Amino acid sequence: MEPKPLSEFSELSSSTEQQFPHHAATAIFGKDGLHSPDPRAEFLRPLPTAGLVTGSAMVCGLLLDLSLQLPGDAANVAWRIGFLEKLFDSASLLVLGMALMSASVWFADLLQGYKHRKLGMSIGVLSTLMSAGVLLSVPLYSMDAQVMFNYQREQLNEERRMAHPLPGSYEADRFELAARNMQRSMFQTAFRRNGLAILSGLVLLILGAQAIRQARRRRDVTFCCPNCLAEDVRTAPWQSDTEKSLAFWTRIHTFVCIYCNERFRRFSLTGRPFPFLF
Questions:
Q1: pLDDT in tens, 39-86
Q2: Domain containing 61: what range?
Q3: DSSP assignment of 51-94, as one string?
Q4: Residue pair 14/80 in contact by the 8 Å Cβ criterion
Q5: How does pLDDT run across 139-190, given as a tens digit for each residue?
Q6: What is the number of domains present in the chain?
């Protein structure tokens, strides 16, 4: 049997890459490969694992630290303020841990040539849930801080009524200065912590959205055809009045597959084949 020329192998390689772009190397060279790995790739291979372990340790350590305060008196305003302040002050550590975990997965995808879709999707969902928790805590902290400020101001006014300082006296000026300092301190503390929480929550939301998008087979599409599993889907160009009404009131839009013309419905805020931000 005569050996085949190299041109046939090159044609086979190109056709395989066109049909299976994500598994071309595996299809041609086998699962483990036939060529010796690049020494630079071997040197960088432990980095994703190290980053993932470090980020996981940071996130788990923060969650464990917060869990030590549970169960607490949720009806106590002072306990809620202390818990949320601890969360907001540690939010930057949470952002750093999630960023390390996301970057480690993306770096591993780059080195190994395929996507760790389940791991990336899990990190994206976790980051999104943490973002929602941090952002939803901001109005609760603002209301509790206002309640605590009103309580402390009432106490200060009660002390002033009991002291009966003369107008213009040293005692009256001392009470006025204490009231102004209390108001300024409350505003500065609430503004700083709320700003840190909002910034951290938005960064976590962006990290989660990017992790979810990177975990998909195609970044510009989320839904696939339920009939042929193709990802080339578009919003249906023609829709009945019922479909238009359903899309307007519930944001459940009708999509159509390019290959088999299958029509199906999915939830989408924007009316495109991927949810908002994801």
A1: 555 666 778 888 888 988 988 988 888 888 777 677 788 888 888 888
A2: 20-215
A3: HHHHHHHHHHHHHHHHHTT-S--TT-HHHHHHHHHHHHHTHHHH
A4: no
A5: 988 888 888 888 877 777 777 777 666 666 767 677 777 777 777 777 888 8
A6: 2
